[in-house]
Design goal:
About 60% of the residues lie in helices and about 0% in strands. The chain is an all-alpha fold. Among the domains are: about 35 residues; about 35 residues.
Length: about 210
Amino acid sequence: MHRAYQPITPANNKLLKQRWDMSRYDTHRRKVQSAAAVIDNKAPQTYMHLHLKLKKLQVEEERNATIERDNRILLEKMSYTMRTKGRVDNRNDYEHKSLNKTKRQRELLRVTHENQAILKRIASKEPHYNHLQWEDEWQINETYMDNIAKYPKDWYKQMTRKHRSRTQSEPARTTTSENKNSTETKEEPAPEEETAEVPPTEEPEAEAEL
């Protein structure tokens, strides 16, 4: 059989060449069979916590338990109301209490003390400007202005007062003159004419025919 084997490369002994080629081929096939795939085409790994959400089930159970408890309490109240006459509990004796009342009182007291201290400092501080000196200087300046002024002080007000008095007196004069003219032009009434009374005429009595 080895004589019929035709090697690819030249060899002196065909039998040994055949054995070597077969051993290399078997080694190659074993490597091919044991080689790992380069592309991973397997199905992805499944995780149980994604399919079975235990937290969601726990929350749902807690919610159902809360609903059942509320329903049971409501049913007990309804049964108690049905067994008894039922009463309305509308009294509320709760007194409102502030948890930070003392803190707010301390803060208010601190702010009040600070404001009083600021007010005391402001009141005890002497003014920087002397308003009495300003008043004296202003009076001196007014005397200077009166001395150099062309017109007397408050001349505009005096002129307006005179003008108003004139405008008020002129209509009164015109009304008095019109009244005088109207009284002079009045005519005396004409004397009434005496009318003679005409006696009524008496109709002659018709003579009775015999």
